[in-house]
Fold this protein.
Amino acid sequence: MCLGVPGQVVEVNGLVASVDFWGVRREVRLDIVDQPVEPGDYILNHVGFAIRKIPAEEIEETLALYEELLQAAESDMMSADVHGELEATAPEGDGHD
């Protein structure tokens, strides 16, 4: 199973965005996102690509769900998948192996 991970867009430079994932910033590609994004928007990230802009009315519920998943034990498949997604966008050598 593969899940996307929500994050808040901090900055946009062409087809690359700096996105905040629970206090950790990662660069995310915008090549395939379904709508234009700007700082303040939330996107769904999958292995370094924004795949969907999260509608404003869904953000609170989406973040609450992922907070639950991140708190779950890593032996939980969904929690492990979310942690894996966050690590997949980590730059090499940042200590998040």
Observations:
- The mean pLDDT is 82.
- The radius of gyration is 13 Å.
- The longest helix spans residues 59-71.
- The longest strand covers residues 5-13.
